[in-house]
Amino acid sequence: MVNPGHGRGPDSGSNSDPFPTGLRVLVVDDDPTCLMILEKMLRTCLYKVTKCNRAEIALSLLRKNKNGFDIVISDVHMPDMDGFKLLEHVGLEMDLPVIMMSADDSKSVVLKGVTHGAVDYLIKPVRIEALKNIWQHVVRKKRNEWNVSEHSGSIEDTCGDRQQQQQQRDDADNNSSSVNEGNCRSSRKRKQEEVDEQGDDKEDTSSLKKPRVVWSVELHQQFVAAVNQLGVDKAVPKKILEMMNVPGLTRENVASHLQKYRIYLRRLGGVSQHQGNLNHSFMTGQDPSFGPLSSLNGFDLQALAVAGQLPAQSLAQLQAAGHGRSSLTKSGMSVSPLVDQRSIFNFENSKIRFGDGHGQTMNNGNKQMNLLHGVPMGMEPKQFAGNHMHMQQQITGLRTGQNVQSSGMPRGGPPMLPSLGQQPMLSSSVSRRSDLTDGVAVRNCIPETSSGRMLPANHSVFNNFPSELPRNSFPLASAPGISIPVSVSYQEEVNSSDAKGNSLSAAAVTAGFGDPSYDIFNDFPQHQQHNNINNRLNDWDLRNIGLVFDSQQDAGAASAAFSTSEAYSSSSRKRRETEVTVLAEHGQNQQLPSRSLNHLNQVYMDGGSVRVKSERVAETVTCPPTTTLFHDQYNQEDLMSALLKQEGFPSVDNEFDFDGYSIDNIPV
Amino acid sequence: MQRQVALIKQSLFDQGYLDEQFMALEELQDDANPNFVEEVSALYFKDSARLINNIDQALERGSFDFNRLDSYMHQFKGSSTSIGANKVKAECTMFRDYCRAGNAEGCLRTFQQLKKEHSTLRKKLEHYFQLARQAGPKETARRPK
């Protein structure tokens, strides 16, 4: 995350920097006259020039010294090897920027150069003015690489988003950057500088105008087919590219997609058996993030997106189910802690909402917080010790119930099929809601439910508290109809599931869920941020209609937002770490509040994003809840918001699952 | 003397033998390569002679491989354009047009014209460089500016 910041250096400072000086250029042209002139021109630009009159020799030079050149300039028409061929090889093997040149200025040839991945196309006679600028391609390339490597996660997401909505791309970018700014500002308040950096990074990535490949479903399927044929471990971008044989697709595109794909596979653990599904979900994982957000995209996109998100969950669930309880126990444990935190957050949220009807209208986070302060106080004493738990438990209960249901399906029949069947249902339901602009309500409900997800231990408790659940969901949702019914159904289902005593399965499901859901979080949070912070986003506007949530969150939203953004920006690897850490956090919180601080801090060192949260959490835990002042509430809010953000997403899925589930079950 | 050199060069431009690319080359001339333009020109004529020879042979074969001819001429055009040989470049372009049209006669006719332009330019440039050398290296280096 830090690198991009540095990456900006060369760009902005390049004018004063000696940077372009000494740029190592390889010139390839079979025409000695041109070669000589070019060499002279490049030297006049103070570049370090290597000339070469045969493409084959150029290629061997490049292969011998892969890091010996910054950029390649190649003629198109050459006897031994076509310039395009060279371009292809360079792109595949060295990933260097290549500039094509030719006396041929016909559009088709220029187009061919560009589609083959040339960063530029110079028409002879090449003028020195054009060569003076070629270093920009080097900078651009490097920046792209940075971004890809450093932010693979974020880039994936944002790119996926952009791909999804090409038309809205620019808007989205602007919004996202502005949102980030907003986040940064809020974060500055809290002196979270890392967040700042990340926000800036975000801007960087959004300002990048690198050519984007739209990984359509078909394209992705081609990709997956190629990967499967080659074997996941043996698949290399070059071969995949060759197998796919898609014009315009570069090795870089394939490489980054492969990277994402591998990360995706890794996330799903040993699920490789379910590759068919995985592919699906993988794709969806990318796309969905935006899909649901944008009401503009309409049904299909949303459905896709939802489906994508859901699949991940469902897969996880399936996995869990398939693997049996042994696997579940591990994952279950870790997951459960998460639930706890969530529940806390939810609880707090609910408190806020409960306490203040007024709070809803408040736009200001601070104000809200104050309100919360006052009102909740009465509630808190009890709540913290007792209610806290109750809430959590309840939530967990709900969650578990959901999970159980979902998990139950797989058990009864072939594990895979049920989930698949559910997906469509879910997606449809989701889309419906989004259309209704009940998104907010759904979200609100979701957090609670999501929090309910895990705690296996809580099940019993949860049984006791079922009545409370509806409350929470309702106030939070404050949204018209839909959310409520859902929640109700939820409860019932949960109860039934509890009765069954499927706690283990539920836990397992949740555990499996953990990873995928996290991803989802990442995707969602961003959107949410946008919504909360930026009502500008068209997509979100609809959802924003549910005022309660937004208003309340606005304050918290910022914090949550950046936490999410951080997670986003951080590489996928980091994400994982954060996941783990979060889990750890939660677990500790539950068991050892005092300890949690230490643990959290340590853990958090890894992922910047989590850190903040964890600390906050720790504080809340350690301090007597009610006594803490603005401070605490702040923290709480942060936590809440963060949780909401993170969990809000998954929870949505869950809700859908529910719907899907109920629908499925009822008719059947 | 220097004026004479300048006049010759100006006439080359005025008559369309050279274009601004030639000026660009002269601007590249510096202390490290005081005779850069002349060297490039020498290289160009040497290489283009080879190309002309190739094309000659291809044409003599009687069977017109237009793709091959076009490829040759593309290279010819590339180098001619790089040196600013405006008239030669124009002939190259015409030749390629005939190639694409499959007009063998046009190719032959154009090629003769091309060779003529090429040799004319060669003579004129040789004369120019000779004078320029006599006028002194500084002169050639400074004049373009």
From TrEMBL, chain A:
Keywords from the named record: Activator, Cytokinin signaling pathway, DNA-binding, Nucleus, Phosphoprotein, Transcription, Transcription regulation, Two-component regulatory system
Sequence positions bearing 4-aspartylphosphate: 75
Domain Response regulatory: 24-139
InterPro entries from the UniProt entry: ARR-like (IPR045279), CheY-like_superfamily (IPR011006), Homeodomain-like_sf (IPR009057), Myb_dom (IPR017930), Myb_dom_plants (IPR006447), Response_reg_B-typ_pln (IPR017053), SANT/Myb (IPR001005), Sig_transdc_resp-reg_receiver (IPR001789)
UniProt keyword Ligase present: no
Compositional bias segments (type: Acidic residues): 194-203
GO molecular function, one term: DNA-binding transcription factor activity
Predominant cellular place of this UniProt entry's protein: nucleus
Localization: Nucleus
Biased composition (Polar residues): 174-185
Region (Disordered): 149-208
SUPFAM superfamilies from the UniProt entry: CheY-like, Homeodomain-like
Transcription among keywords: yes
GO cellular component: nucleus
Domain (HTH myb-type) ranges: 209-266
GO biological process: cytokinin-activated signaling pathway; phosphorelay signal transduction system
Record family assignment: Belongs to the ARR family. Type-B subfamily.
Chain's role: Transcriptional activator that binds specific DNA sequence.
UniProt protein name: Two-component response regulator
Organism, as annotated: Cardamine amara subsp. amara
UniProtKB/TrEMBL annotation, chain B:
Keyword Lipid metabolism: no
A GO CC term assigned to this protein in UniProt: nucleus
InterPro entries in UniProt: AHP1-5/YPD1 (IPR045871), HPT_dom_sf (IPR036641), Sig_transdc_His_kin_Hpt_dom (IPR008207)
Pfam families per record: Hpt (PF01627)
HPt domain ranges (all copies): 33-128
Record-linked SUPFAM superfamilies: Histidine-containing phosphotransfer domain, HPT domain
Record remark: domains: Histidine-containing phosphotransfer domain (HPt) contains an active histidine that mediates the phosphotransfer.
Protein name: Histidine-containing phosphotransfer protein
